[in-house]
């Protein structure tokens, strides 16, 4: 009886040891797969921090939000992954003209751009340290597709200062478009503001 119990205990320990190895292998495999970032969950972009706001007046020409004292605004150094021919985004409206609600001159060329120019700013992750500067993207919405030049960053990290017209950081999925882009897409009136679009590099 004692010998039987000893054999049984040894068998249990052997099984547990094997299970532990399988479990460890599974964890390692998952860790290796994380580097490929193939899961939609792993591709998600989370805030890197929060910016505490300070109240100040800002240009409200396009119903822009002004920073508020004590408000915590999420900061993003990443954007959702670009998905080839069709990346989902939210389009907002912005004036890149001098004294417009876009703040200072455009990041890509240190210039202002009139409201009649087909230009956009992209959230920090998509702006990608200027890699898309002065390149064209296509924007599709409302049954139309138009071309616009990337001239600026819609800063998802910094804000609530003079350089950013005392507005909060941008969300991480923004195509901030000039009035000309909205007109070309035939989007007017109360539809102007936050609009679901897709975009792609050209």
TrEMBL record:
- Chief subcellular location equals secreted
Localization, per the record, is: Secreted
CDD domains the record matches: DPBB_kiwellin-like
Q: Identify the SUPFAM superfamilies for this entry.
A: Barwin-like endoglucanases
A GO CC term?
A: extracellular region
Q: Where is the signal peptide?
A: 1-24
Q: Which UniProt keywords apply?
A: Secreted, Signal
Task: Note whether Secreted occurs among the keywords.
Answer: yes
Family, similarity comment: Belongs to the kiwellin family.
The protein in question is named Ripening-related protein 1
Q: Which organism is it from?
A: Acorus calamus (Sweet flag)
């Amino acid at each position: 009886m004692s010998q039987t119990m000893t054999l049984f205990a040894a068998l249990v320990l052997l099984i547990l040891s094997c299970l532990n190895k399988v479990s460890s292998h599974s964890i390692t495999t998952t860790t290796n797969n994380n580097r490929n970032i193939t899961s939609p969950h792993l591709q998600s972009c989370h805030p890197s921090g929060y910016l505490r706001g300070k109240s100040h007046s800002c240009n409200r020409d396009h119903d822009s939000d002004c920073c508020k004292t004590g408000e915590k605004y999420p900061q993003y150094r990443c954007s959702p992954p670009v998905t080839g021919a069709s990346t989902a985004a939210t389009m907002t409206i912005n004036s890149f003209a001098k004294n417009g609600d876009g703040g200072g001159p455009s990041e890509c060329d240190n210039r202002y751009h009139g409201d009649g120019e087909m230009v956009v700013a992209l959230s920090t992750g998509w702006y990608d340290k200027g890699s898309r500067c002065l390149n064209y993207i296509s924007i599709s919405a409302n049954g139309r597709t138009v071309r616009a030049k990337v001239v600026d960053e819609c800063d998802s990290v910094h804000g609530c200062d003079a350089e950013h017209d005392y507005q909060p950081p941008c969300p991480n999925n923004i195509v901030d478009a000039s009035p000309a882009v909205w007109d070309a897409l035939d989007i007017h009136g109360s539809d102007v503001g936050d609009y679901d679009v897709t975009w792609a590099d050209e």
